[in-house]
């Protein structure tokens, strides 16, 4: 499909042009969040992705958002609608008269349909690394007239993450973890976005291989005997440390015997926006309570620095 650069705001040159325009319209560095909007700054934004919604509000563009998809639930009070990001309906989206739509994929010829109606589109696919997250936040800032706010957010995230990582006890041998995506035992490898997060905190996945999200067998997990188990299926599937302990052969796992089976917020664990810092802080707190090399470890409370 041919995507006209004038209408499709993506990474690269288009984002840099918007960035320059934003800087030129705001010599104070505060951005056009108050007073008369700078020329070209969107005043009616539709978000079709929970992560995009969180990014928009985090950079200060919340007042410009007129509608979000049915999965967006943060921050509290976002204008939730029945719009779907999975099966987007161009006609329904246009009903909100947007001048910018943010989505994570060009599903169902979304871009072409909106482009034909003269609506700009910003596509932000699932991030593969933290650097992708930072880049997308900066693109959101450039596209919405909040260049300075986005830069400040990225700098604050980096500072907080550095502090969190520095507060985790050093270990001669990395702790091994099993991250459960759902109750059919799908997991993650180190070569994924969340795997990078865990790796920064001194953890390594028991799941390996070319598929970043493999389905493991119960027998394999028992054989690997992870030090930690993270359950990202508590909300969706009702999985708890108690139900895990009752699985055949799992009661003797190191993680189960040591009380290191933890339910994590599946939204924090699956979205690649600003709240990844909250997820890292939560996991760091858990990791810091696990004895290092057989010795006692005092829990470390990691506080935000920005």
For the termini, the CA-CA separation is 43 Å
Estimate the strand proportion.
Answer: 5-15%
Query: What general form does the structure show?
Result: elongated
CA radius of gyration is: 21 Å
Q: What's the total number of strands?
A: 9
Mean pLDDT value:
86
Strand-pairing-aware structural class:
alpha/beta
Instruction: Catalogue the unreliable spans.
Output: 1-37, 294-306
Count of helices? Answer: 13
Order of helices and strands: EHEHEHEHEHHEHEHEHHHEHH
* Relative helix content: 25-40%
Strand order of the largest sheet: 1-5-4-2-3
Q: Main β-sheet, in a few words?
A: 5 strands, parallel
Structural notes for this entry:
The chain is elongated and about 60 Å long. The protein starts with 7 loop residues before the first strand and ends in a 19-residue tail after the last helix. The protein is about 35% helix and about 10% strand. The longest helix has 20 residues, at about 145-165. The protein has helices spanning about 15-25, 50-60, 90-95, 110-115, 130-145, 145-165, 195-200, 220-225, 235, 240-245, 255, 265-270, 275-285; strands at about 10, 45, 65-70, 100-105, 120-125, 175-180, 205, 230, 260-265. It has about 300 residues and is of the alpha/beta class. The strands form 2 sheets. It has a 5-stranded parallel β-sheet, with helices on both faces. A 4-stranded parallel β-sheet has the order 7-6-8-9.
């Amino acid at each position: 499909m041919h995507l006209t650069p004038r209408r499709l705001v993506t990474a690269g040159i288009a984002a840099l042009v918007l960035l320059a325009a934003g800087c030129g319209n705001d010599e104070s560095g505060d951005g056009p969040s108050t007073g008369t909007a700078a020329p070209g700054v969107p005043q009616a934004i539709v978000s079709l992705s929970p992560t995009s919604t969180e990014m928009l509000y985090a950079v200060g563009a919340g007042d410009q958002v007129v509608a979000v998809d049915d999965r967006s639930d943060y921050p509290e009070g976002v204008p939730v609608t029945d719009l779907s990001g999975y099966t987007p309906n161009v006609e329904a989206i246009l009903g909100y008269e947007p001048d910018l739509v943010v989505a994570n994929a060009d599903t169902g010829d979304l871009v072409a349909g909106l482009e034909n109606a003269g609506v700009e589109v910003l596509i932000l696919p699932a991030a593969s690394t933290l650097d992708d997250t930072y880049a997308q936040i900066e693109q959101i800032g450039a596209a919405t007239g909040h260049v300075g706010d986005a830069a400040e957010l990225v700098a604050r995230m980096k500072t907080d993450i550095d502090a969190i990582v520095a507060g985790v006890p050093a270990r001669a041998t990395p702790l091994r973890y099993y991250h459960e995506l759902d109750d059919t035992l799908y997991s993650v490898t180190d070569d994924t976005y969340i795997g990078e997060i865990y790796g920064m905190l001194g953890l390594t996945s028991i799941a390996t291989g070319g598929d970043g999200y493999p389905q493991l067998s119960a027998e394999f997990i028992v054989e690997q005997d992870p030090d930690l188990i993270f359950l990202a299926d508590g909300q969706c599937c009702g999985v708890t440390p108690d139900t895990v302990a009752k699985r055949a052969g799992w009661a003797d796992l190191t993680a189960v015997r040591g009380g290191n089976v933890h339910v994590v917020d599946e939204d924090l664990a699956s979205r690649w926006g600003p709240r990844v810092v909250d997820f890292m802080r939560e996991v760091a707190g858990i990791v810091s309570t696990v004895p290092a090399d057989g010795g006692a470890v005092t829990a470390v409370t990691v506080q935000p620095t920005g």
